[in-house]
Amino acid sequence: MIEDQFSHLPGILSEESSGRRTTLGGRHPYSETPRGTNGDRAVFRQLFDPETSSYTYLLADSTTAQALLVDPVLEQIDRDCSLLSELGLELRLTLETHLHADHVTASGRLRERLGSQVGAGAKAGVANADRELGDGDLIELGSLCLEVRFTPGHTDGCVTYVCLDEATAFTGDALLIRGCGRTDFQQGDPKALFRSVRERIFSLPEETLLYPGHDYKGRMVTTVAEEKRFNPRLGLDRTFAEFSQIMSELNLAFPRQIDRAVPANRLSGLGGGAEEGSGSRAAPSERRAVAEAMERLGRQDAELWRGMGI
């Protein structure tokens, strides 16, 4: 049995709950029977793509050795496959938080390599997803259980994955650490994002750990309480009018990979001629130079430019 190194994440263990259940591992996809117990152990890894400052999350049930990945990145497919092999895990599912514009997902290639299924929000626009996930659906993998929450605004198809006891959530680009995703393309809507964060994420317990889709300053995790207090865009001291003005004045360049990433990701990373390791990426030194100049000018969106404007 794989040693549990993340006992602070009890919420990914399945317990009694209501809602539509999506299960893997030979059980009926809508079983109402709770799976696993709090005595089961979970494996958790937070993985990073330095070129796009994107996070990928590995979750696994160490008893069954079944695993899922949240937001895998195409250029990191060899790393992720190696880690799965080293830990003796079988990848059963990949989950997308939204249709990414700054990088190509590895979900489709992982399905080809390892036989895993692709899951995405029903409104994300992933045409070849194996599982179109609805708001309130429960995703079960062995003893692991995640609730799907629609959190549109950055795009109209964004979802947040919340562990069953609300101890941990994976917010994608809807809520970042001291920030949020942009709202000026891909059917983005500042009003929808403001409502999503305030009503669907900030409604979680204040101690809930929030793991974002990106970070550009070396930060890895935050909490609901921290973001309510310190998020300069969406903190509780901000009105919607203030938030809307902030978002309208960002004036971000489009992501460098948008023309490649969006068509590819509509087919789980397989569309638009995407190939493993291909694609143009701006040099890290170029990103740093521009971001540093923006910071000197007081541009609050400088850190987003480091990630090519998610």
How would you portray this structure in words?
- With 310 residues, this protein is α/β, with parallel strands linked by helices.
- The protein has 8 helices and 13 strands.
- It has helices at residues 77-86, 107-114, 190-201, 224-230, 240-248, 258-265, 284-296, 302-306, and strands at 21-24, 42-49, 54-61, 66-70, 90-96, 117-121, 131-133, 138-141, 144-150, 159-163, 168-172, 209-212, 222-223.
- A 7-stranded mixed beta sheet has the order 1-8-9-10-11-12-13. The chain has a 6-stranded mixed beta sheet with strand order 2-3-4-5-6-7, covered by helices on one side.
- The longest helix is centred in the C-terminal third of the chain and has 13 residues, at 284-296.
- The radius of gyration is 18 Å and the shape is globular.
- It starts with 20 loop residues before the first strand and ends with a helix.
- Residues 1-8, 10-18, 23-39, 278-287, 297-302 and 304-309 have low confidence and may be disordered.
Question: Could you give the order of strands across the largest sheet?
Answer: 1-8-9-10-11-12-13
How large is the radius of gyration? 18 Å
- Percent in strands: 15-25%
Work out the number of β strands: 13
Kindly report the average pLDDT value.
84
Counting H and I runs of at least 4 residues, what is the number of helices? 8
Q: How would you classify the helix and strand content by structural class? A: alpha/beta
Shape: globular
Q: Which spans of ≥5 residues are poorly predicted at pLDDT below 50?
A: 1-8, 10-18, 23-39, 278-287, 297-302, 304-309
Provide the fold topology.
Layout (H helix, E strand, L loop, with lengths): L20 E4 L17 E8 L4 E8 L4 E5 L6 H10 L3 E7 L10 H8 L2 E5 L9 E3 L4 E4 L2 E7 L8 E5 L4 E5 L17 H12 L7 E4 L9 E2 H7 L9 H9 L9 H8 L18 H13 L5 H5 L4
Parallel strand pairs: 1-8, 4-5, 5-6, 6-7, 11-12
Antiparallel strand pairs: 2-3, 3-4, 8-9, 9-10, 10-11, 12-13
